[in-house]
Amino acid sequence: DRACKERAAELRDEILFRQPESTHLGDCPICFLPLRTDHAKSMMIVCCSKIICDGCVYADKRHRHRENLQQTCPFCRHPIRKIDEEANKKLMKRAAANDPVALGSMGTRRFEEGDYVGAFEYCTKAAELGDAMAHYDLSHFYQEGLGVEKDEKMRLYHLEKAAIGGHPGARYNLACHEWRNKRFDRAVKHFIIAANLGYDKSLESLKKSYRRGLVSKKDLAAALRGYQAAEDATKSPQRETAFAAGQEAEAANRSN
Taking the model in full, what pTM does it have? Predict the structure, then answer.
């Protein structure tokens, strides 16, 4: 009946608007610092399906170059040479073992090849195993009708699953959906949660909402502190060194 439906919606919102402890990426398995939401600042290693921050990758590479050691995976120490030779085989083996990261990576490969049906199937399997990134990707499939018929209800379902799993981009998209439907209070809740995860787009949206009188000064200040805390938690000397090295490499490439 109506009362039951309303209570179910309330319970759903309790879960949906709960602040995740971290983003869907979690921590780097080597330095144990939170991974940045910028995918360019980390690397998925095929041999073990681990996502390693750029700081640890760069520090390990420098150490091995300095000591003239064989290049290996920073986490499991599998030789890089073998990774290059057997990357697809290793990835498919891990996907067959229901590794959600590997399944998601296979989905990305199929998508890049234009096999949207295959990509959808791999992402569906990863999502069934609780992978927030896969849920986020599925929302895109349903939105664009890639490998599956367009379905707005399913798009929102997967965005919610991804947001609950800590995906700040999914949370931001939900906020935009609520905003377009003039449910500003729900939109602001999503923006705050994503900002607390270090998502800059949500922070900027909160500033605009504040100027429109939709966010209190107290809530904006709390979101600013949460955002800064999330940003600070991802910083380390190794990561800053890796970033600086990347900037130098880009500058050198532009000058050539």
Answer: 0.90
